[in-house]
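F.,

This is the one I mentioned.
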């Protein structure tokens, strides 16, 4: 099937959809200038994850870990939603639910105006104390105190899920509850390698709940045969086309 026909198929499904699930990864924010992890120019090419995004690394050298996150926060503070984030926000309308699950630690979906966003890997803008459980929103970039310290005296950590850690319970329960409700028309999986088993599992559950599963990515991903339609391209190009009323003229 040609790209135009694939886009038309998804556009048709979206036009009638009352319930849309969206799963996003780092790729959706790439066009906002936020580096992904695993691409050719991704963060992991330059840095070893085990030096920064693990609890061991934090215990060994919290200042080093915080300097890395502080730099990411400074960069992120400049980032603005791109046409992909805005297209998802524009999909919300009376009589249609758009439920977004994001692996991203930025807040570009919220900035674009999306109302129902579940963050499964935490937020770059929250800090947490492991001793007394305090969680604070903190948007200082750069941080004035590095590492930030809790009122109880403990060094606080980024409220981000590190390698080897479990997903936070509350967002996962929200997602499972949503999936159990069923009746999902469309599941857009955007800008993720789908390396984590739970991403594949949730897309599969959405499919079982009736969804057409659409992968929006320039490359093939770990979703494999779950995908009904692969819209190959950049999210910022592909998603706005799903909202166009008529077929764009082919020159
Ligand atoms: P990843 O880096 O593993 O993969 C990025 C994916 O995006 C690739 O499949 C790539 O082909 C695709 N991609 C690149 N540019 C794209 C574009 N313009 N449009 C559509 N797709 C594009 O990212 P992942 O699968 O999300 O990995 C998960 C981890 O990355 C999560 O833990 C997440 O917290 C973290 N992460 C988040 C951010 C952020 O918050 N913006 C940034 C980097 C990494």
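My design for it:
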């Amino acid at each position: 099937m040609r790209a135009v026909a694939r886009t038309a198929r998804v556009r048709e499904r979206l036009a009638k959809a009352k319930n849309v699930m969206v799963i996003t990864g780092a790729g959706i924010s790439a066009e906002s200038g936020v580096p992904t992890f695993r691409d050719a120019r991704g963060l992991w090419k330059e840095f070893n994850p085990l030096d920064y995004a693990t609890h061991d690394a934090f215990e060994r050298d919290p200042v080093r870990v915080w300097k890395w996150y502080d730099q990411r926060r400074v960069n992120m503070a400049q980032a603005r939603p791109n046409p992909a984030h805005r297209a998802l926000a524009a999909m919300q309308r009376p009589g249609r639910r758009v439920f977004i699950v994001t692996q991203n630690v930025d807040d570009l979906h919220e900035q674009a105006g999306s109302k129902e966003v579940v963050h499964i890997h935490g937020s770059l803008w929250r800090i947490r104390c492991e001793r007394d459980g305090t969680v604070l929103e903190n948007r200082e970039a750069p941080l004035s105190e590095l590492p930030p310290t809790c009122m109880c005296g403990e060094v606080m950590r980024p409220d981000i899920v590190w390698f080897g850690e479990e997903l936070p319970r509350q967002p996962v329960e929200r997602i499972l509850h949503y999936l159990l409700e069923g009746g999902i028309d469309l599941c857009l999986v955007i800008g993720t390698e789908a390396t984590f088993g739970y991403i594949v599992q949730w897309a599969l559950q959405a499919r079982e709940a009736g969804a057409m599963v659409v992968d929006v990515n320039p490359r093939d991903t770990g979703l494999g045969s779950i995908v009904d339609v692969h819209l190959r391209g950049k999210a910022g190009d592909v998603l706005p086309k799903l909202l166009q009323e008529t077929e764009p003229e082919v020159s």
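Residues 25-27, 29-31, 34, 36-39, 42-43, 103-106, 121, 191-193, 195, 216-219, 221, 234-235 surround nicotinamide-adenine-dinucleotide (CB under 6 Å).

Talk soon.
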